[in-house]
Amino acid sequence: MRALIGGKGTEWVREDRELPEQLGAIRIQVMAAGLNRADLYALDGSYTANSQGDGPFVAGMEVAGVVEASSLLAPHLPVGTRVMGITAGAFADYTLCHPRLVVPIPDHLDFDAAATLPVGLITEHDALVTQAGFAPGDTVLIVGGASSIGLIGIQLAKALGAGRVIATTTSTGKRAALLRAGADVVVDTTAEDLAAVVLATTDGKGATITLDHVGGNLFAQLPAATAVGGTIISIGRLAGAGTELDLDTLAFRRQRVLGTTFSIRTRTELADVVGALADRVLPALAAGEITPTLDSVYAVDDARAAAQRLRDNAATGKIVLSFADAHPGPAPAPDPVANLFGGIAQIGYVVRDIEESMRNFVACGIGPWFFLRGVHPEDFTYQGEPSAMVMDVAVANSGDIQIELISPVNDAPSMYRDFLDAGHEGVQHIAYWSDDYQQLYDRALAAGFTVGQEGRIGGADGRFAYLETEHHPGTVIEISDVGGTKRLVFDLVAMAAANWDGSNPIQTIDAGLIGGDPAVMAAMLEALG
After folding, report:
1. Contact 146, 115 (CB under 8 A)
2. Among 191, 247, 202, CA closest to 227
3. Angstrom distances, CA of residue 453 to CA of 94, 252, 414, 512
4. Closest by Cα among 83, 105, 76 to 27
5. DSSP-assigned letters across all residues of 240-303
6. Residue 429: beta bridge partners?
7. Which of left, alpha, beta for 60 (phi over 0: left; psi -120 to 50: alpha)?
8. Which end of the chain is more exposed for a tag (fewer CB within 10 A), N or C?
């Protein structure tokens, strides 16, 4: 895959890298990646995130794309899900993400638009709500409102119910963009006195919450523009980290000044920040109350030009790098096997000596075994043709999982005979059970499976089928009806295992039991006490 590497000079270097892998992470097919100031700071060595590590690194922290490899930690994000989020290494054709650091992309947004949002949403929501304690009706001052993050902050404050939103800019040409984002008042700090305008707009009270993305000398004006008891959050330092404060103003107005950054937060802390979007922000995004502001899209090979546009403060909104040219085909599709049939109910072994196999399992503490000789399934077919296959069967439970042993006793065709003739012995299939067998059967065929063998044991509600899924020995999938007599028998087997004291480890049962013969059922109940 292509990747833009930082830590090798003043610009990113394009390299070919192996696809990343990590247990528990999802792998994303990157379609677009947002460009942030922090990416430039990381490039010049003045910003190092916890996750970056030492030496050269794959750049980028904001991603939009498609889940290409799923994670067991995130069943809600299967392969093919469109996601956006934060990560380390977003400037590549593929990147890894912790599942808690991404959210699904709303249907109405394309990838370029989605790539403008994650950093802004988590930064502004964390600062405004979690840190500053925003409440509906608050007056919010966004300093540096024309930045990509500031534009999201304006929309977020309005969507959450701010009474008034005031935003600043240093460019007359960007005033319209701030008004479109929802600002009630725009202040050009190069020509207007910030505190005077804010106080005039708020009947002399000032802003309840001030979010500052600029820092530098302008920060000194913020206490005078912020209300008594108000909160000032320092988010960015576009104009520098140094400033002077009138501590009398700060003290007399009883204000809080808080600083925030994501560079030193742990993955768990970041996950909590992303998770906090679920209640109000993501619904507002889906409803169109928050919309992306996309400045421009650059190809991977034009990344230097994109970086220079950001350095020149020429952008209004987010600059995005597109990686879509690496993924021209259809979106990844999930493996039809995954989660298709529910949970495994049975593990089936095909063996040559079934009685020896039962004794070996008993020695491992699994029993009691119910042994049926000469079972001949009804309507049994192999590869679509009738077969007179007869087998010996034994079943026992280990916890909630049933263990089944099968040994064919004649040479009639079957997948069991194929397994043994190939030199195998041991696990041959895993089984999924359902009270609605037809639905399971139809789902399997619709997903492209073919049936290797099928039949009935125990009447109309005892159907089973083995699917052609043996990619390597032991991976055949069986689907089985567990209605009627079979359900009762299997429940009795599980009950016997749960109460087994080690006695009578092997009990031979008439094969007629599976067929629902009342006399055989009565004999089994008597044997179980």
Report:
1. no
2. 202
3. 41, 84, 7, 22
4. 83
5. -S-----HHHHHHTT-EEEE--STT--HHHHHHHHHTTTTTHHHHHHTTSS---EEEEEEGGGH
6. 348, 476
7. left
8. C
Q: Which two structure tokens, joined as six digits, stand for 285?
A: 């995004």
Residue 430, C-beta contacts closer than 8 angstroms, at least 6 positions apart: 344, 346, 347, 348, 475, 476, 477, 478
Six-digit token string for 118: 């994650």
The answer to whether 353 and 50 have CB atoms below 8 angstroms apart is: no
Q: 298 pairs with which residues across the strands?
A: 321
State the 10-residue block means of pLDDT for the chain, 529 residues long. 93 96 92 95 77 81 96 86 96 96 96 97 96 97 94 96 96 92 95 95 96 93 96 90 88 93 86 94 95 96 96 93 94 71 93 97 95 93 96 96 97 96 94 91 84 88 86 82 80 91 89 62 63
Q: Can you tell me which residue has the tokens 């995954």?
A: 338
Alpha-carbon dihedral 197, 203, 205, 209, rounded to 10 degrees = -60
Q: What is the DSSP string of 133-163?
A: ---TT-EEEEETTTSHHHHHHHHHHHHTT-S
* Residue given tokens 């299939």 in the structure block: 429
Give burial (CB, 10 Å; 0-12/13-18/19+) of 519: exposed
Structure tokens at 247: 């501590």
The DSSP output letter for 473 is: T
